[in-house]
């Protein structure tokens, strides 16, 4: 059971990220007409970034805590360099997407 917790948390964070950015990108009702709506949109963008990044980074400490209870095959899988870099890459992509969405939102707001 312990060997599934880190991967489940990471997959949950990745799914929340993909789903939220997809819904945010295709939502035609989000238009920053007022100051409140503008601040709300920026807040939602960065709350999504922090929530998804937290879910992406939490599995690493859990993996370290549960490593004594895991099978050797699972330990070998999690010790691969690509698997260890995946949360950091995910957070980097989230940061780029959040910054890009924020700049687009600010650009639309400043054109008015």
Q: Per the principal axes of the C-alpha atoms, what is the gross shape?
A: elongated
Order of SSEs: HHHHH
Low-confidence stretches: none
Rg of Cα set: 18 Å
Q: Averaging pLDDT over every residue, what do you get?
A: 71
Task: Assign a percent range to the helix content.
Answer: over 70%
Number of strands: 0
Percent of sequence in beta strands: under 5%
Distance between the termini: 54 Å
**Main sheet characteristics:** none
Structure classification: mainly alpha
* Number of helical stretches of at least 4 residues: 5
Describe this protein's structure.
The protein is mostly helical and 112 residues long. It has one domain (2-110). It has helices spanning 5-26, 35-57, 59-66, 72-78, 81-110. The model has no long low-confidence stretch (mean pLDDT 71). The chain crosses the membrane at residues 6-26, 38-62, 82-106. Keywords: Membrane, Transmembrane, Transmembrane helix.
Using brief descriptors, characterize the structure shown:
112 residues, mainly alpha, elongated
């Amino acid at each position: 059971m312990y060997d599934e917790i880190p991967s489940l948390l990471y997959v949950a964070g990745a799914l929340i990220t993909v789903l939220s950015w997809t819904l945010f990108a295709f939502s035609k009702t989000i238009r920053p007409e007022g100051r409140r709506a503008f601040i709300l949109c920026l807040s939602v963008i960065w709350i999504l970034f922090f929530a998804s990044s937290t879910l992406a980074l939490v599995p690493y400490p859990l993996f370290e805590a549960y490593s004594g209870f895991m099978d050797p095959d699972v330990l070998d899988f999690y010790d691969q360099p690509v698997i260890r870099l995946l949360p950091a890459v995910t957070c980097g992509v989230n940061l780029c997407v959040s910054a890009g969405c924020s700049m687009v939102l600010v650009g639309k707001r400043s054109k008015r």
